[in-house]
Write a structure and sequence with these properties.
By secondary structure, this protein is mainly α. The protein contains 14 helices and no strands. The chain has a single domain, classed as Ammonium transporter fold (Orthogonal Bundle), CATH 1.10.3430. The protein has helices spanning 40-62, 64-87, 98-108, 116-128, 144-155, 157-161, 180-187, 193-198, 210-222, 229-249, 254-261, 265-272, 283-303, 310-327. Helix 3 (98-108) runs parallel beside helix 5 and helix 9 (210-222) packs parallel to helix 12.
């Protein structure tokens, strides 16, 4: 997710040769600087560490529901990777931890009350169709976790639309009812800014707390595992569009606050859109990607029947990432 990472290990996590011993060629704009520390396992470990505050809060809020969903998705992703890699006759890649990260992100993008088969199916689709079918890690066009999430969102919209929790002690009021964006969009009901920021609201496991997402996201930026331009572009787009809409509609700041701190915006901006394989290579390309993602998020949120738009926005921008790379590819030295 750093500027140097895209030219190095994500394309070839096992080194400079493939499993047959053939040399691999890294194609990227110069200068070609090798960062030995920027290997896939280190990047994925950073992401897991950054996700810990979100995981901890989700377990605090949703208790056994969060533990169940996380366990199901991680095990299903690792099992799917093992199966599909073996079917292709390739060497196992479980040690790079990418399947673990995919499983955690899928689980955090689902409501804790989703049936077990939803998490399993999302994981199988994410690994099989979102990743392995393209050739494995570094070859996929779309973010695997969002491919799986989109599949179950379309297939099981009713199961994912309403979260119902039983026997959750202490925080029943905090995690019951509609999500903040749904309540605002369909019922005109707003929530307190503090509840939105700290996460005492309903929603998918990883989207409730903007504070936890910011804490983990800033860690990724500090470690240079995530490129800061992408989340900055996303947040800038959302603030501008939501702010203008807020002023035009006389919402007294409530619309801006809900779109900024409610839903999956912070989680998506730092942990989904910054995927090093499916986002652009160049700093200018990252800005375009971030601004475009934020723009699409707000278009979907304001004008579609969905209260949320992060998943579809990221997938649509993934599709144009190769074009962004071509448009922003720097000229070789000496060319006009």
């Amino acid at each position: 997710m750093s500027d140097t990472t895209k030219t190095q290990e994500p394309m070839t996590p096992s080194g400079s040769t493939d499993e047959r011993g053939a040399a691999l060629i890294h194609v990227a704009p110069s200068p070609h600087i090798k960062d030995a520390a920027a290997h896939t396992q280190r990047i994925m470990t950073d992401v897991i560490l950054a996700l810990l505050p979100i995981i901890a809060l989700s377990i605090y809020l949703f208790e056994v529901y969060a533990i169940k969903q996380l366990s199901i998705c991680v095990v299903a992703c690792m099992g799917s990777e093992f199966l599909f890699v073996k079917m292709r006759g390739k060497s196992l890649t479980l040690k790079d931890c990418s399947a673990v990260v995919t499983g955690i992100i899928i689980a955090l993008s689902l409501p804790g009350s989703a049936p077990w088969f939803v998490g399993v199916l999302a994981s199988v689709v994410a690994i099989g169709i979102g990743k392995i079918i393209f050739g494995g890690l570094g070859m996929n066009i779309f973010n695997p976790a969002m491919v799986g999430r989109a599949f179950v969102m379309i297939a099981f919209a009713q199961l994912l639309g309403a979260a119902s929790y039983e026997n959750v002690t202490g925080l029943v009021d905090a995690v019951s009812g509609a999500t903040p964006l749904s309540a605002l969009k369909f019922n005109g009901v707003s929530m307190e800014t503090a509840a939105l920021f700290w996460g005492m609201t309903n929603g998918s496991l990883g989207e409730t707390s903007s504070a936890a997402c910011l804490l983990g996201g800033l860690f990724l930026v500090f470690r240079k595992t995530a490129s800061w331009q992408i989340p900055a572009g996303i947040l800038l787009s959302v603030v501008l569009i939501a702010g203008i809409t807020d002023i035009a509609g006389s919402h007294s700041g409530l619309l801006l606050v809900h779109h900024l701190f409610g839903g999956a915006l912070m989680f998506g901006a730092f942990f989904i859109a910054t995927d090093p394989v499916t986002s652009p290579l160049t700093p200018r390309g990252k800005w375009i990607f971030g601004l475009g993602t934020g723009f699409l998020i707000m278009i979907i949120r304001l004008f579609s029947g969905y209260p949320e738009g992060v998943m579809f926005a990221v997938l649509m921008m993934n599709a144009v990432t190769p074009l962004i790379n071509r448009w922003t590819n720097p000229l070789p030295m000496g060319e006009a």
